[in-house]
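User: I would dearly like some help making sense of a protein record. This is the protein in question:
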Amino acid sequence: MKTLQYFLLLAFLGILVIAVTSLPPRGDVTAPVHQHVNPAGTLVAGTYFIQHAYEDTKTPNMVTVILADYRAFDTMGEVIVVFAGGIACFFILNVRRRKP
């Protein structure tokens, strides 16, 4: 069993090394992350959000536009997870022990 664990760990490490070595150099301006148009010819999502934030929503604050309009379902999910964690902590810390 230990041999299998070591083999899987070594395989994962190999995949990680291959992935890291295939990344573009730091600060490379030709890297895909710095492009404004993807290979299909359309705007990258971040570029679209920046260029069309006010036209799409008529809200002057770009952060509000991205969090409340473009990423509303994602933000709602994050809020639900934080709320559920808070409620769980409240119930765990508020448990009263019964006297025997």
